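Input sequence (482 aa), recorded before submission:
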Amino acid sequence: MAAAKQRDDKYFLLSLGCSKNTVDSESIAQVLNQNGMRGVSVPQEAEVLIVNTCGFIDAAKQESINALRELVEGRKKNQMVIAAGCLSQRYGSTLVQEVPGLDGVIGTRRWMDIFDLVTRLRQRKHPEPLYHLPTDAAVVGLDERGVLRASVQGVSAYLKIADGCRRPCAFCAIPKIKGTAVSRPLESIVAEAVRLQAAGVKELILIAQDSTDYGYDLGLKDGLAHLLTAITAAAPAIPWIRIMYAYPGYVTEPLMEVMATTPQVLPYLDMPLQHGHRETLKRMKRPAKVEWVYETVGKLRAMIPGLAVRTTFIVGYPGETDEEFDGLMQFVRDLEFDRVGAFKYSYEIGTPSATLPQHVDDAVKQARWERLMELQQGISLKKNQAFIGQTLPVLVEGHSRSEDKQGRKTGAIISLGRSYRDAPEIDGYVLVEGELPPGEIVPVRVTGATTYDLIATVETGAVVIQPGVKYGEGMIGLNDVR
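Predicted structure, token format:
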């Protein structure tokens, strides 16, 4: 009996999908921990098995379904399997048709009720699955049970500032999954930033479905600019603050001014544009004023020298002609983005784009994707080569050992770091000779460049960079990165 009771206090949580989902998974874990449960890394050791699913595109949906099926098929007596997250919210009770044997389904809008669902499952007298799928998105952010809405990875932390989206993008199911945009109270976010500062976090990454829409529902004008000002004032010891998921047309003058004048806010902007041709953007129901992008990127680069701009594009969108794709290619040539992610259009049931005519052949999508990535690789290499000879502050993440041409470990230690130009997981690395202290920001001299990464060495006498400190001539420090 004692062993069974010990197992009953344990849960296994598998998180799939994006960084926003990872934050929700961390929050789910905190709720379970607050109620006396403990997370384990092996599903066989737990009573409660949870998959926080992703339902954004078909490949992610299938990955989530496969993970759930594996847990259901391999579970032991008295183990329960719960589907949480985006796939649950999108497909609701019909998810059990894809995964027979599921015990519980909980959506994105009441993740904080996870322990209540576990309690109900423990008390149920019949094996029918239980569902907890409220449709009211307004509850998000209003009843978070005191959990920290962040995912901490080393000395970096993703901090969620809002959930949901009110944009009408024709290819995207997020509004159906998450509901409309709901901003978290500014005071709550600032308080959490202070907590993360006390925990030693050195990189704060602000995330939402649309970060530039922050505060709209709260009646705030230029809400993201106000939030950044409040965070930097309350948590001055966090040296790096990074903005992700900006929406075209909503990068305002006040936001630009905060980025240009606040040393803690990195000169890095992630702004998914999705395409560069007006007609394609119209069918996407995205901002179609391409001239705005040229003007805004030019203005940003003038105000913030050294600015790194990241974006994403979709190729093969329904109706995309050769002319429209060529327009995208010219758009990329003209603006020379620092970082580009490209995706082949994925058919999503229930989205407006699914009903559009003239779907593009898969082979054409693949060929266009390859052409776009080849173009961007040349741009990325040129951008990286421009940093050779410069000194950059690098946040050290860990170590690896170099390999020879045959893939054998040579024994030489290489430190893996990221500069201000590199968001975790999606951008490149700075590969530094020697062993540097993980979690520290260290100035390194760039000696080489590849398509995606920089190669560097530590200069003799280099010191760990501290917030608010200026450095010598020729060195780019935290307050001098522009």
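Checked by second reader. The chain is about 35% helix and 20% strand.
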